[in-house]
Amino acid sequence: MGDVSTGQRALFFSILGIVNATLLWPVCLALYLTGTEQLPAHRMPWLPLLLASGALLAFHLVFQFGNLMTYNIFVSLGLITAVPISAALDVVLYGVEFEGMKLAGIILITVGFFLVMFPDNWPDYIMRLLRWSRRRQRGADGAGRSRDTVDYRTGYIRSHLRSPSGRVR
């Protein structure tokens, strides 16, 4: 959507927070007053909630304002490593077993992050790499054989599908 300044980004998130606070508190109050959601203060897991909210705040601050202090590539690498590290922590701490679709989901998320990090013209780089490797293989096998010449008079391109006169077989 274009480059935004730090002030514009901070203003947007401030307005978003104010709108959330103004529009969502009636929903919480209605759920509490109707008895749909009972939240007794003595049974709330306050420490995990506070740690999760602090970690989420730090994540958003680093993600949104990290490009001011460092390159965008480092922020993207942090996002890429977050998913597998979270999965490893789930395995170690909670004994979660990743198999089937869960494992495929983690792999696809990681591959997706890598694809987003690639430059827009990454297929051009791959094609250059493939051409370079073919040229290198021909140089080793053909002992310096030059590229196949094209006879523009007859259309002969050293193809097995064309005769030496240029006609299609």
Automatic annotation (TrEMBL):
Q: What is this protein called?
A: EamA domain-containing protein
Q: Which stretches are transmembrane?
A: 12-34, 46-65, 71-96, 103-122
The answer to whether keyword Phosphoprotein applies is: no
Please, which domain of life does this record's source organism belong to? Eukaryota
Print the keywords alphabetically. Answer: Membrane, Transmembrane, Transmembrane helix
